[in-house]
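Subject: Sanity check before I submit

Could someone independently write out the structure tokens for this chain? I want to compare against mine line by line before I put it in a report. The sequence has 356 residues.
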Amino acid sequence: MRGFCLGHDSCDMNNQDTPTQAANTAEQTETLRSVTRCCEQTRRRGSARPGGWIHMLKTSTRRAIAVLGTGIIATAAILAFGSAPAQAAPSGYFLAKGTGSIYSKSDVVALGVVPGSTAKTFYYKLVNTAPTAESFKVNMLPLDNGSWTLYKGYTAVPNEYVTDPIAPGRSLSLRVKVTLPAGTPQGQNRAQLVVRNPDTHNFIDIASAYAFATNQTGTQRHDLFLKTGSQPYVGGSISTQVETANALRVGNTATFSLRLRNDGASPGAISLGDETDFTQCGSNYSITIKEGTRNVTAAVQAGSYNTGTLAPGAKKDLRVSIKLLSAPTCLDTYYGFTASGPDGSVTQYAHVMVGV
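---
Independent answer below. Compare away.
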């Protein structure tokens, strides 16, 4: 599976207006969102993550490339309108954290959210890298579905929020609470946090909160669910679902649970393999996959793991441990797992971030 991304040069958003300010049609808004999705992956890495952001499905890649290819000139014109001269200050960046307490410079976080349940909280820090105390303008771009609330610490603040001055090298804690209404279709829903110079409107940084609407049961004989910690399972019969674990420092381990379940009406066996297309800096990590006490890592990596015939409703649970062995150059990585059976196949992704 391969996604796509525009080149790094297309993601220079300094001196640009926000997408919500510039776009005035649904087509323009979607084009800008596509650019933003690439920007958030390239702006501090200098090049696109292999394959781009993984929610670009195989079947939509070619069509989406064509759409963006024809729309890039219009997009550039939209983004350039209303620009202001670049200024040295303020400067800064977002930190984000997954399910643990450690923050990461990888500011893309994906969590499972049960529609109709309580709000899910995403945590960020805004770090001031300027030599003087600076204020920043923070605003949220629309959530695909549901509602969100921005907080400074534990105090709700409005959109277009201008911070008090932040001392050099210090940070401001921000939270985004996301709620998905009951009946929200399974899949991803994205909210984006943008920081700008409050005087010139110059773009400084962006962070994304991906709320994956969950469905704790499926309909196929090859369903694959994935979760970390106390998060709800994502995946099942729908493919390309993601969940972010705790950020890792060298020596730390992130743990995920994989559930292979027959949710069909007749017996069937499920095979499991891994996807390496999006695994960056793999030599810096070790991965261990166990079924109970039995180590099945080699079998999964070879694509030869098989549950044997499962009756309807029966399941097999696997435990995945990903350990950071040495300091990588990548800010994060994705481990993909594909379950195949009589009804087809699905792929889910475990997202691991490097802590600061």
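---
OP: Matches mine. For the report I'm noting this point. Helices lie at 19-22, 26-42, 58-80, 297-302.
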